[in-house]
Structures are given as structure tokens and as C-alpha cells.
């Protein structure tokens, strides 16, 4: 048995566009393995200087300033420090885990998943896994790899690899032999990094579709990607063989921001409470385990079962696992409280001691114990009273099901993986979604819609190609299928004329907005236009043969003349980035104007018209507008 503390790393991201526009002060410093958090100027009274908060961790990654080459920690550095060690432990037969914690927008998903150009921990680890397998596999040693991918949202578990999984929640059970597990979760066989990349891409597409259809925010969900590595070792002389099985859990936790900061209300508040419940429970589990490690109350109760998240992470926290945590923080002064909370959370986590063991021949042992359990249950069932029979029967069925799953051959697993992949592709294609594996790789002459999402990991992930006549709606007869609040069975039509003109025609009572403006009749579309269907389906249209609108004139027509010189502004700035925030906020602003509400922009003036407008749009995301 190997007793090891949880390794903790802290990573600070660069100032984002909004923070740069607002000249936000950086309050984070890093030197060696120390992170220093300075109180923001607004929290310091004249003549009174609060001392900075100093924390020490295993690793401190300064990703704030790429120009500082000696100090800067990019994706490769993060992987070398955290990912390589975890992979080594997995090959030795240990269970391992990396989980990312921090407020929304602090860089969790970027650290875990990354982008096409800058891959994160998960794709780098998976790539390195198969590179090592190709080097080490021979006649005396073989490897089998399986993966599962799930999302925990509102205390419910969804399978992201099963085509039907995003529509139903799965039960979490605990078996006395296997421990906590998700009943019915797909565990798919893979033989290459490309297989994993494809599964993750399609899993993320399913996650995006489900989140949009149900009006959910992915930043409020936890994503768990599991890799199960089975090593079979053969003794060629004796003919004997043995197995080592390791499970690597890669967890991207939900955003940890405060309710007061998000401005949440109603369903969002309830949903946030469930997310906070799981993160709060995780905090309580971490605190209890830290106290145990320090010798304070060794018999202290650890509330693993108080949330689905902690129940499933039971082995990774204080159990049989080599675990690392990456805490991501913002450098900005206006995120001081969230950053301090994250650093305190991480400071507690580093005290946890895990008790990892090499998992040698676990399957044979588990199957043997399950069969013994089945025999006992059958005997008890034959002698049971009528009241106890249903409970015993359920336990018997559960154990028999587990034995069946554990005794499936590798060939059967590969066949099942292929069947599920084909079903998932059929489902995505039936909804009009292109099956590009990673990022947007489409021809320059193609007309298509691309989804806009608040979560960078899910933004611009779904591509919908347009035909000469494309029908949009919830009905199965539609070319592009959308579901959710405000989507009609037949919602809208998009037509491409022979001369290249593109028009959008909404059906009656089918909410459709173009660049934030509600449209009720046929409307011309231009390259880069933003479309909102229903309550939360945001898209940007790509029309390579149609130039962009004159965005300054278009915005001025809707909101009145600018307060600064437009020519100077247009010279000083390029056209705006038509992202989710822009699309969402132009809907809000134009709705306010159409209702006779004047949005005062004076307090947000930042030197030129474009910066002025953009900062208002971005600032509004953090303000709860109360319109009487």
C-alpha cells in the first residue's frame, strides 16, 4: 500500500478581454511554489493596508503572461508536471485521478480539454497513453483500454457516450464488492487515440445538444471522463498470466462562483444550489479527510453519500487512488473573493492522504466474490419471507447483471462500441449536425450554421450545413432538429437563391431573432449574422459569398448615434467578435430599446465607440437587470 498526499497545483489564467478593457488590476503573484493574493485596492481603506494571503502548493503555474518565457507555464508544462506522473502510476496498476476546481471562466476546461491548437491534460494524456502502449506491447504483455464519459447535472448522471444517455438519468448504486458505480453507464472499448478523440468530440456534441435543448448551462455541470486500462502479463515459460487494472478519472468540476455574483434566480438559483450542494459536500469531504490526516478525529464521519459527485469520487478522495487537483484562478481584482475561496479550498485538499494499492488480478477476484454473493442471495431468497423477497430479488438481479458485464469478451465490447458509434452518428445526422471530429473543418464555399455557447468547451462545436431550402424545428421531418422552450414543430425556413441571396422566414408564433431583433417576416441574412431561435438556441451563420453587414451602421440604427467619433473608432478597432456573449447581449439591449427602455451607456465609456459598446455587452453579463 502506498500512502500519498493529494498533489495540488494552482494555475492563474491571463486577464481576459473584459478585464483588459476595464483596466482591471492583477492581484495574484507567483514565485516558485508560492501563490500570493493581494487585497484589491477597493478593499483597502486609506492608511489601512491588509496583508497579502500567502499559500504554498506542489505546483504554481503562471499562465498570465506568455511574454515572460522563464516563468510562463503553458499546456505542455502543466501536462509534464501533472499528467505524466498520473500516467506512470496508471501503468504501475494504481487508480489515478485529476480534478479541476475553480470559478467559471478561470480556465478549468482549457486546462483539462484545451483547444485544437493547445491541447489540454485529457487529450495529451490519452495520446501519451497509446504512444506508450505501442512501445511496450509485445507477446508477454498486452493492453486493453476502455472509456466512459458522463455528466453530473442537478444531482443526475447522464451518459455522454450512449445516444440515448443524454435523455435519461442513470442511477448511482453501491455494491459491497465493487463499491460506488453508475448503473448502465457505457464503457466503450478503444484501440487508438483517434478512437478516444472521436468519442470525446461526439460526447461533447451530445452534451451541447442536451444542455441547449434543456436550457442548461454546462458551466453548472461536472464532467467525468474515465479511462480503464487492463494490462495482461504472460509468463511464456509457465503459461500463466496475470492482470493489472487501473482506472484514471479526469474530472472537470462545475464553476464555484457565488450566487450573488451570478445574479441567479428561480430555476437557475435552484440548479445553482444543487451544484453548490455537490461542491459544498466535496468541501466537507476534503475538510474531514484533512482533519483525519492531521490526527484530528480519526473516526470522523466523511459525508461521501451526501452528493452524487462525492459518492462517485469516493475512491479518489482518501481511498485507493493517486490523486492530483488543479485549482484555476483569475488574476483580476474583481474576482478576489472567488480566488481566495479557491485557494483556501486547494489548501485543505493538499492535506488529504490517499491509500493506493496496485490492482492485481482484480477482475478474477471480483467475479469470484460476486458469484459467491449470488449463491448466498439465491439461498436467502428461497427461505425469505414475502416482505423481504422483492429486496433480495433486486440485489440478486444487480449482482447477476454485474457478473454478465464483467465476463463480456473483448471482441463483444469492440462490437458494442461500433454499434453505439453508428447509432450516435445516425442520431446526430438526423438532427442535421455535421460529424466533423474536432473543431470546425469545413470548406470555404460552404454555407452553414454554427452553435454559440457560453462554455468555451462547447462553443462552435455543432455545425449545421444549409441546403437550398432548409427547414428548422422540433418535428422529425425538419432538416435541422432543435428542441426546448420556444421551439415550434415547424419553426423557420432558410432559403438560398441562385444569385446567392439568403433569407430567413419564421413561421407564425415562432420566436426568431436576427442580430438581436425579433423578426416576423422574410429577412435577408448576411455573413456573420447571429440568429436566436426559441429561448436559447444561438447560432452564427457562415455565408462566404455574402459580405458582412456594416455592423457600426446596423448598431447605430438600433441604438442611436454613438457618443464618440465613429471614423476614429472604426480605425482604432476591428469588427466585434460575434461570440455567445455578443449575441446574447444584443438581444437584451434591443429588447430593452423596443420596450421603450433607454439603456444608459455613459458610465461605461472606454475611449472609443467599439470598446464602449463591447464593454457594455460584456459588463451586462455580470449585472442582474431589474426592469419595472
From TrEMBL:
Residues 5-352 form the Kinesin motor domain. PROSITE patterns: KINESIN_MOTOR_1, KINESIN_MOTOR_2. ATP binds at residues 102-109. GO terms for molecular function: ATP binding; microtubule binding; microtubule motor activity. One of its GO terms (biological process) is microtubule-based movement. Pfam families: FHA, Kinesin, Kinesin_assoc. One of its GO terms (cellular component) is cytoplasm. Keywords: ATP-binding, Coiled coil, Cytoplasm, Cytoskeleton, Microtubule, Motor protein, Nucleotide-binding, Phosphoprotein. It comes from the Eukaryota. Belongs to the TRAFAC class myosin-kinesin ATPase superfamily. Kinesin family. This is Kinesin-like protein. It comes from Sus scrofa.
Amino acid at each position: 500500500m502506498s500512502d500519498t498526499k493529494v498533489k495540488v497545483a494552482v494555475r492563474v489564467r491571463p486577464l481576459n478581454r473584459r478585464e483588459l478593457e476595464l483596466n482591471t488590476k492583477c492581484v495574484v503573484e507567483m514565485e516558485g511554489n508560492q501563490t500570493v493574493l493581494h487585497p484589491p485596492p477597493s478593499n483597502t481603506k486609506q492608511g489601512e493596508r491588509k496583508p497579502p494571503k500567502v499559500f504554498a502548493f506542489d505546483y504554481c503555474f503562471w499562465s498570465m503572461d506568455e511574454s515572460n518565457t522563464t516563468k510562463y507555464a503553458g499546456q505542455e508544462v502543466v501536462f509534464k508536471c501533472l499528467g505524466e506522473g498520473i500516467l506512470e502510476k496508471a501503468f504501475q496498476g494504481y487508480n489515478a485521478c485529476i480534478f479541476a476546481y475553480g470559478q467559471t471562466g478561470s480556465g478549468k476546461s482549457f486546462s483539462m480539454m484545451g483547444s485544437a491548437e493547445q491541447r489540454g491534460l485529457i487529450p495529451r494524456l490519452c495520446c501519451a497513453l497509446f504512444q506508450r502502449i505501442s512501445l511496450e506491447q509485445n507477446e508477454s504483455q498486452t493492453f486493453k483500454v476502455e472509456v466512459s464519459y458522463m455528466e453530473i447535472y442537478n444531482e443526475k448522471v447522464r451518459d455522454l457516450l450512449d445516444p440515448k444517455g443524454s435523455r435519461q438519468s442513470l442511477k448511482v448504486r453501491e455494491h459491497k464488492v465493487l463499491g460506488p458505480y453508475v448503473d448502465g453507464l457505457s464503457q466503450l472499448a478503444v484501440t487508438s487515440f483517434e478512437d478516444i478523440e472521436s468519442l470525446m468530440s461526439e460526447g461533447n456534441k451530445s452534451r451541447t445538444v442536451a444542455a441547449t435543448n434543456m436550457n442548461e448551462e454546462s458551466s453548472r455541470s461536472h464532467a467525468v471522463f474515465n479511462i480503464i486500462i487492463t494490462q495482461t502479463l504472460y509468463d511464456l515459460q509457465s503459461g500463466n498470466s496475470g492482470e493489472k487494472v487501473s482506472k484514471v478519472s479526469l474530472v472537470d468540476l462545475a464553476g464555484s462562483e457565488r450566487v450573488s455574483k451570478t445574479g441567479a434566480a428561480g430555476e437557475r438559483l435552484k440548479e445553482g444550489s444543487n451544484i453548490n450542494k455537490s461542491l459544498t459536500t466535496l468541501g466537507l469531504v476534503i475538510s474531514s479527510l484533512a482533519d483525519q490526516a492531521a490526527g484530528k478525529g480519526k473516526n470522523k464521519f466523511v459525508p461521501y453519500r451526501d452528493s452524487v459527485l462525492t459518492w462517485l469520487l469516493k475512491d479518489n478522495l482518501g481511498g485507493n487512488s493517486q490523486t492530483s487537483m488543479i485549482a484555476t484562478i483569475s488574476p483580476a481584482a474583481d474576482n478576489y473573493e472567488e480566488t481566495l475561496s479557491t485557494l483556501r479550498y486547494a489548501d485543505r485538499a493538499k492535506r488529504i492522504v490517499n491509500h493506493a494499492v496496485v490492482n492485481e488480478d482484480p477482475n478474477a477476484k471480483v467475479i469470484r466474490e460476486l458469484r459467491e454473493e449470488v449463491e448466498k442471495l439465491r439461498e436467502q431468497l428461497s427461505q425469505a419471507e414475502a416482505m423481504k423477497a422483492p429486496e433480495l430479488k433486486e440485489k440478486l438481479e444487480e449482482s447477476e447483471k454485474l457478473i454478465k458485464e464483467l465476463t463480456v469478451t473483448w471482441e463483444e465490447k469492440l462490437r458494442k462500441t461500433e454499434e453505439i458509434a453508428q447509432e450516435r452518428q445516425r442520431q446526430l445526422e438526423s438532427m442535421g449536425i455535421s460529424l466533423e471530429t474536432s473543431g470546425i473543418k469545413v470548406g470555404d464555399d460552404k454555407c452553414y450554421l454554427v452553435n454559440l455557447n457560453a462554455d468555451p468547451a462547447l462553443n462552435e462545436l455543432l455545425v449545421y450545413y444549409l441546403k437550398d431550402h432548409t427547414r428548422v424545428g422540433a418535428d422529425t421531418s425538419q432538416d435541422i432538429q432543435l428542441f426546448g422552450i420556444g421551439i415550434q414543430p415547424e419553426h423557420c425556413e432558410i432559403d438560398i437563391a441562385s444569385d446567392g441571396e439568403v433569407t430567413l422566414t419564421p413561421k407564425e408564433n415562432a420566436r426568431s431573432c436576427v442580430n438581436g431583433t425579433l423578426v416576423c417576416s422574410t429577412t435577408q441574412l448576411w455573413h456573420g449574422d447571429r440568429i436566436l431561435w426559441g429561448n436559447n438556441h444561438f447560432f452564427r451563420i457562415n455565408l462566404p459569398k455574402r459580405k458582412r453587414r456594416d455592423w457600426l451602421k446596423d448598431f447605430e440604427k438600433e441604438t442611436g448615434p454613438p457618443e464618440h467619433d465613429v471614423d476614429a473608432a472604426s480605425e482604432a478597432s476591428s469588427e466585434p467578435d460575434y461570440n455567445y456573449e455578443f449575441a446574447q447581449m444584443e438581444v437584451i439591449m434591443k429588447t430593452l430599446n423596443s420596450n421603450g427602455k433607454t439603456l444608459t451607456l455613459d458610465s461605461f465609456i472606454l475611449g472609443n465607440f467599439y470598446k464602449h459598446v463591447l464593454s457594455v455587452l460584456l459588463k451586462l453579463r455580470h449585472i442582474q437587470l431589474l426592469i419595472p
